[in-house]
Write a structure and sequence with these properties.
By secondary structure, the protein is α/β, with parallel strands linked by helices. Helices cover 44% and strands 17% of the residues. The two termini are 51 Å apart.
Length: 712
């Protein structure tokens, strides 16, 4: 929550806009502090779209492309294999084809060729008769490759959005909003966003119309894929990206691209399975694109060939489009299996080795799939809260040779710029590149150990000895009476959400947890909550009942997105939970129990030994209860919830918080059950089978406890 909020200005903004104080607060936090800028943001004013000819070399590029079209020169669109690259290729290819160009496309394979322009690819294009290469989402560092193409008589025109060096390729034109000499007012376009601007400029010149009319034409036909590529590449959804994404999501709902339509329908209907009842179509959201569409498009380039995704969006035959859409979904399932397999191995390795004090995690293997290690690295950083890099030597003739080259993919967390970190080790790397929070690299095995050591030191210096923290940024605290359908509808004016314009996160404190309902085959939870005589429905996704640490009757603080739920034609307000904590009042109660335990542990308590010292029978009861729970998938517990569950099931009348915690401590000490403390009040556990009986008399914890309290 922002402490520097100017309450008077927020009140004024609320009055001027005629909106709630909540919406005014959200606008103010996003930097829209006056009526004019706030209205332009809410209404998504198309005046925000900038003149494409402000991009350096745009006029040169347009003239060269139109000349190539008129002279029937062979044009090849050269792209990348991710969603941004695929959508860029498709948009430029479709436009050039539409104005009569002789055009084809080329995307290098991730596994065989790797990222970017290569001389081997240029040789292939020479044999295909290419006269002009137009790069999309790549090429700004292809200095030697551009020279090579020129020697072969091929012109190169570069469009890109990645970071530039001082030296640019000697190409016909280099269009990149991040050029150091840029005049363009917005530098955060995706690669496909740069192509969108190129198409607007081409349309204006080719059709001899003004730029506003040209932009309208291009938005109608090409904003759908532009929005998908922009969202997938995690670009800030502000400035003209906000307009492009908003227009594109609307166009995607009624797209004329039968391949895109087929993929959307498959994703909505469960990948080929007909819905059990007629479903009302929900409008496309940036979340649906980012978490559902984009992974399927990306999977083609990660596991198979990005050409499959391109051909889907270029398809003109419905049956072919449906086959390709289903194929992408199947490839994505394969990607998920591969990703999960690698992730399990990585987690197992981390948790069975001493990584507790690491500021960064760098791991390598000889057969991890290059296409998915970036996704796994992201999961590792999310799980452990530190930057991570995974390196695979897959494909090397001798992966253990000192000269073997591994390809790595890394993800960072707030507080460490990954590209700057890699720059500090550039002498050890074959190549590297990327963004602040995501990057790729190549490294020889002989440099790996020193690389790990230097990166660890770099990470330590960034975090100054402190652990990197997961921080959930809260926009606004609400009271029960604030949470209404009207408010959910009002804040939807902030959509589409994305980087720099996130879905607002609210907090409600001291809500009572009334019911916990498993949904979606036990993969998610629906929680019924109440506060101040109001009832609320909240969804907690990707949490199974056995992973949930709370129990009915708990008083909790929740962080959530506020949404509108449509069901059977009825709209209702719904919370999508981001985090849950016990309320301060309930935490105080837990702390009382914890303080009593600590007092007993230090021998400072005069309670009767029968209240404090667990008997063998108590251990057996708790062991059997945890074992039974584990068989149903349970893997974590709050001590007080474990006690509550055991009391409910009438397992024992002899247990209390203090005794139960000592039992858990002894289980961990003697490795009877593998237990890890989550915090003072909760723990995770799993069983290691095949062990014989353990003698409890070996426990130093029990010995000390008995020596203190049997004397008393």
């Amino acid at each position: 929550m922002h402490s520097d909020l100017d309450n008077e200005k927020v009140e004024n903004l609320s009055f001027e806009l005629g909106c709630s104080r909540v919406l005014a607060t959200l606008l103010f936090e996003r930097g829209y502090e006056d009526k004019k800028s706030a209205l332009a943001f809410i209404k998504k004013s198309q005046e925000i779209l900038h003149d494409p000819f402000l991009l350096n070399d745009m006029d040169i590029a347009v003239k060269r492309i139109i000349s190539a079209v008129k002279n029937n020169e062979k044009i090849t669109v050269y792209g990348d294999y991710d969603v941004d690259g695929v959508t860029s290729v498709c948009n430029l290819y479709l436009y050039l084809k539409n104005i009569g160009a002789d055009v084809d496309y080329y995307i290098p394979s991730r596994k065989g060729e790797g990222y970017g322009v290569s001389t081997e690819a240029i040789d292939k294009l020479k044999t295909r008769g290419t006269n002009l290469i137009i790069t999309v989402d790549t090429g700004v560092t292809a200095i030697s490759e551009t020279e090579y193409a020129k020697k072969l008589g091929i012109d190169v025109l570069i469009t890109d959005h990645h970071e530039c060096t001082d030296n640019l390729p000697d190409a016909i034109a280099v269009i990149n909003p991040k050029r150091h000499d840029t005049r363009y007012p917005f530098q955060a376009l995706a690669g496909v966003g740069v192509i969108f601007k190129l198409l607007c400029a081409l349309e204006s010149e080719y059709q001899k119309i003004d730029i506003i009319s040209a932009t309208r034409n291009i938005a109608y036909d090409y904003s759908d894929l532009t929005a998908i590529g922009t969202i997938a590449d995690v670009m800030p959804v502000i400035d003209e990206n906000r307009i492009i994404v908003a227009l594109g999501l609307l166009q995607a709902e009624k797209t004329k691209k039968i391949g895109l339509s087929a993929l959307i329908d498959l994703c909505r209907n469960g990948e080929g399975k007909a819905p059990k009842y007629k479903q009302q179509k929900k409008k496309l959201s940036s979340g649906f694109v980012g978490f559902t569409l984009a992974p399927r498009i990306n999977a083609a380039g990660r596991i198979g060939s990005a050409n499959d995704a391109v051909e889907l969006f270029l398809a003109s035959n419905l049956q072919k489009a449906q086959e390709l859409a289903l194929a992408l979904c199947e490839i994505n399932k394969e990607r998920q299996l591969t990703e999960n397999m690698i992730a399990d191995r990585v987690y197992s390795y981390i948790e069975s080795n001493s990584y507790d004090n690491k500021s960064m995690l760098i791991l390598d293997d000889i057969d991890w799939h290059h296409g998915v290690i970036g996704i796994v690295a992201s999961r590792v950083s999310d799980r452990y809260g530190v930057p991570s890099i995974l390196i695979s030597f897959e494909g090397s003739d001798d992966p253990y040779s000192p000269e073997a080259i591994g390809k790595g993919s890394g993800r960072s967390v707030s507080g460490m710029n990954l590209v700057e970190a890699l720059s500090s080790c550039s002498d050890l790397l074959e190549k590297f590149g990327g963004h602040e929070l995501a990057a790729g690299l190549s490294i020889k095995r002989k440099n790996l150990d020193i690389f790990k050591a230097r990166m660890e030191e770099y990470a330590k210096s960034c975090f100054a000895g402190a652990e990197p923290e997961h921080v959930l940024d809260i926009d606004c605290e609400l009271e029960a009476q604030d949470i209404t359908l009207d408010l959910a509808n009002e804040i939807s004016s902030l959509e589409p959400y994305g980087v720099s314009n996130p879905n607002p996160v609210f907090v409600l404190r001291n809500a009572i947890l009334n019911d916990i309902i498993p949904v979606g085959m036990n993969r998610h939870l629906k929680l019924n909550l109440s506060k101040d005589n109001k009832q609320f429905s909240a969804m907690l996704f990707s949490t199974a009942p056995e992973e949930f640490l709370f129990t009915q009757g708990d008083e909790i603080d929740i962080a959530f997105n506020l949404e509108t739920n449509e069901f059977n034609g009825i709209s209702s307000v719904q919370m999508s939970l981001k985090d849950i904590k016990l309320s301060e009042r309930f935490l105080d109660l837990e702390r009382v129990n914890e303080q009593l335990y600590q007092s007993v542990k230090l021998g400072e308590c005069n309670l009767d030994s029968s209240y404090i010292i667990p008997e063998r029978e108590d251990f057996e009861i708790v062991y059997k209860f945890l074992l039974s729970s584990a068989r149903f998938g349970k893997s974590s517990y709050r001590i007080s919830k474990l006690l509550s569950d055991m009391v409910k099931r009438k397992c024992s009348d002899n247990l209390n918080y203090v005794k139960l915690k000592f039992i858990i401590k002894v289980f961990r000490e003697l490795n009877i059950i593998s237990i890890e403390e989550i915090d003072n009040l909760s723990f995770s556990y799993h069983f290691t089978y095949g062990k014989g009986k353990t003698c409890l008399d070996k426990s130093n914890i029990l010995k000390k406890l008995k020596s203190i309290y049997t004397k008393k």
